[in-house]
Write a structure and sequence with these properties.
The chain has 57 residues and is mainly β. The chain has one domain: 2-Layer Sandwich (Alpha-Beta Plaits), CATH 3.30.70. It is built from one helix and four strands. It has a two-stranded antiparallel ribbon. It is globular.
Length: 57
């Protein structure tokens, strides 16, 4: 599963353009919500400019 650190997140939404299942993540008012639809592909972790998205081990 993906871990979204909302204290690091700058809410840029960069993951939306690279995530093959971007419907699994939603940018809420002040945090990122990761749903069960996440396929753990980790593409978004590579594109996040502030390192707010991390794959849980």
């Amino acid at each position: 599963m993906l871990d979204a650190n909302r204290y690091k997140c700058c809410y840029c939404g960069a993951y939306v353009s690279v995530c093959p299942t971007c419907s699994s993540m939603e940018l809420m008012e002040t945090w990122i919500e990761v749903s069960q639809g996440c396929k753990d592909c980790s593409v978004c972790t590579k594109i996040c400019p502030v390192g707010a998205l991390e794959a849980e081990v």
